[in-house]
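Note on ligand handling. Small-molecule inputs were canonicalized before submission; formal charges were left as drawn, and no protonation-state enumeration was performed. Where a ligand contained multiple stereocentres, the stereochemistry in the source SMILES was retained. For zinc ion, this procedure yielded the string shown in the input block below.
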Amino acid sequence: MVTTTALACPMDGLPLTSFNNGWRCPHGHSYDMARQGYIHLLPVQNKRSKDPGDSKDMVLARQQFLAAGFYKPIADAVNEAVKTAAQSDQPVSVLDAGCGEGYYMRALQQSGLLLHMTGVDISKWAVLAAAKMDKAALWLVGSNANLPLLPSSQNVILCMFGFPVYPEFSRVLTPDGVLIKVDAGADHLLELREVIYPSIKVASQTPDIPPGFTLLEQRSLRYTIDITGQDQIARLLAMTPHLYRTNAEGRARAAALNELSVTVDVQINTWGRSDQILITPSPD
Ligand SMILES: C[S@@+](CC[C@H](N)C(=O)[O-])C[C@H]1O[C@@H](n2cnc3c(N)ncnc32)[C@H](O)[C@@H]1O
Ligand SMILES: [Zn+2]
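Structure output:
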């Protein structure tokens, strides 16, 4: 199911081929498959910190929160968006760029599509968790800023609450490939934000237009989740950037809650490469 022919050396971009228990490029750079089933393709010189990306605690919090099913409607909507984009019986190569602990890639396996799945995350903790739970996808520690994948190798890129790097996304997408981007809407987790911040910033409603892409399809999803228990509320806070943005008083107010009803409000937008959007010439 997993194709490895799309892997590129993060040092020089050359194709990686299978070699013993790992991969090697024609220049001799080699990378081992970790015992847990992932490949580390983030050269030390490309790391901005010793332990980049989400920490072990954040990954565990997200894993436990997502396992409770609170975001299943998002996964279902993403599956629908991928199915719409695929529109064929051919295998679909899907990259989850900033895959976290792999929740959406596992959910995508319920779509009925024939898939070649790759998950990339800069956090080794996230990739380790993903690889332990799912052997069907290829899991890579790597950066969206220098994706270890060959040009034109992916039909679909998912970027879920993540860190998009559009020139890299364009490079690895096939000419007719699509980017499915999921972002928080203006009211996402509003009730949690009302607890932790003294005042709420009103977020812009219009999605940023990714350079080099054109909007093909727009979906919005809005529902309420009822979270019970201090642990689960703490996990939700810990898996969002709000944990670091709020102060000690805000965190203490959240920690004192035993239950919380909170709005989930997300935008699921499908983008095509602008250079592939065909414009029919008008007759002279
Ligand atoms: C908010 S989390 C979302 C995780 C996952 N997409 C989800 O929705 O469950 C953002 C993820 O992006 C990862 N990340 C941050 N910078 C990255 C980069 N340059 N390349 C790849 N992943 C990155 C983090 O480690 C983290 O797992
Ligand atoms: Zn190389």
